[in-house]
Amino acid sequence: MRKQVLAAFVVLLALAIYCFAALPVNVSLLVNQNPLSGSQWVQMIPANGNIRATASEGAFSLASSYQDSGCYWIADSFANDQYATVTVKNYNSNSNDMWMGPAVRASGTNAATFTGYVLYIGKGSAAPNDYAELYLRQNGNWTTEIAHDNATVPQTGDVYEIHVVGNSITTKRNGVAYLSGTDSTLTSGAAGMFFYGGSSSVRSISNFTAGNEASSRRRPPVVAMFIPRQPMQ
After folding, report:
1. Residues in CB range of 167: below 8 A, 6 or more apart
2. Cys bridge to 150: 73, 128, 144, 212, which one at CB 3.0-4.6 A?
3. What angle do CA 82, 65, 186 make, to 5 degrees?
């Protein structure tokens, strides 16, 4: 009996060590990063602009307006089936042609090679005046629009997800099925974010979460979120 109890304890201890060792990774949230880089991110860098983390604003955003940039997480390895989720920090509905959103199967190191499936959230200035677009970006070009929405106005606090399993690309808005489609162009890459135009006051993201889909998940997801600094008691 003692041996059985001891064996059970050892198993539980091993599981606990594994779980705590594989807790979600947090970006240095209270430290400014401009641009996001180093051992955690790969970013499309100037001349197309920087994505930054700003502790005082608690947000991911572009360092300056009217730039086109993307980044993806490299501190963990992603399976081919993966997801990315963002929470809208700031959204100004009066600002046109400024976009932000999550990406999957992203790759590349500069404007000419940057590739991925992107759910762009924003507002177009020309018909059909989209508020969201699901796109294939390939080698720096917006190659294929997979789906779009010109009816649902984004709101601050909205949570947008993009998932890719095989050639199926699905999205959610606040947990509800949203845009979807199929494309077999990209088969691998990493999860990340894209921005186009707009300073942090009109387009910014507060939380970024990414991981592998359940069918290929080996560890808990990567999480990057901003937590407000608590006042001293």
Report:
1. 182, 183, 184
2. 128
3. 25
Query: For residue 21, what is the enclosing H or E element?
Result: helix 2-21
What element of type H or E holds 162? strand 159-165
d(CA 230, CA 181): 43
Residue 211 C-alpha from the chain's centroid = 10
Q: Which domains does the chain have, with CATH numbers?
A: 26-225 (2.60.120.560)
Tokens of 208: 């970024």
Least confident of 19-28, 42-51, 58-67, 198-207: 19-28
Find how far residue 23's CA is from the centre of its chain.
18
pLDDT digit string, tens, across residues 84-138: 999 999 888 777 878 899 999 999 988 788 899 999 999 888 777 899 999 999 9
Report the predicted TM-score, pTM, of the whole model to 2 decimal places. 0.81
CA distance 62 to 91: 13
